[in-house]
Design a protein that fits this description.
142 residues; mainly alpha; globular; Globin-like
Length: 142
């Protein structure tokens, strides 16, 4: 029996996520990786709220393993989708996530988008975003 090797994306998942979260922290000007984690989780959940299940899974397919897990964690599949709205309204939604434990800046969505674009295959990300509802491309504009 021949054993399949563990794919590098899984073998390196923790180290890759550590690099990403430090990048997100620095891009947003936050002090800690805990603050950056809350911001990233809030941005991912705000985006997920605007997609149906198949669209969300398509988007998740371009995320690195740890971000993919964060994206789908605590997903209420019964929650109705909401439309994309203006950047300010979506930013306020991100900032409301976890209330007093969230210090996401007004640039949170753009900051996470910039860090994500440095961490994934941008061409693949853009191809997937083009298949999602109107507003998805603008959401992930850095």
């Amino acid at each position: 029996m021949i054993a399949m090797t563990i794919p590098m994306e899984y073998r390196q998942a923790s180290a890759d996520f550590d690099r990403f979260i430090l990048d997100a922290r620095d891009t947003a000007g936050l002090r800690t990786t805990n603050q950056a984690y809350t911001m990233v989780q809030a941005v991912l959940q705000a985006f997920r709220r605007r997609l149906d299940i198949s669209e969300a899974l398509l988007f998740a397919s371009v995320l690195p393993p740890v971000l993919r897990a964060i994206f789908v964690t605590d997903w209420d599949l019964e929650e109705p989708t909401v439309p994309f709205s203006g950047r300010l309204a979506m930013t306020r939604e991100v900032q409301a996530f976890r209330g007093d434990h969230n210090v996401s800046p007004d640039s949170a969505i753009a900051d996470v988008a910039a860090a994500l674009r440095r961490d994934v295959d941008e061409a693949k990300l853009d191809r997937v975003l083009a298949r999602l509802p109107q507003g998805a491309v603008d959401f992930w504009r850095a």
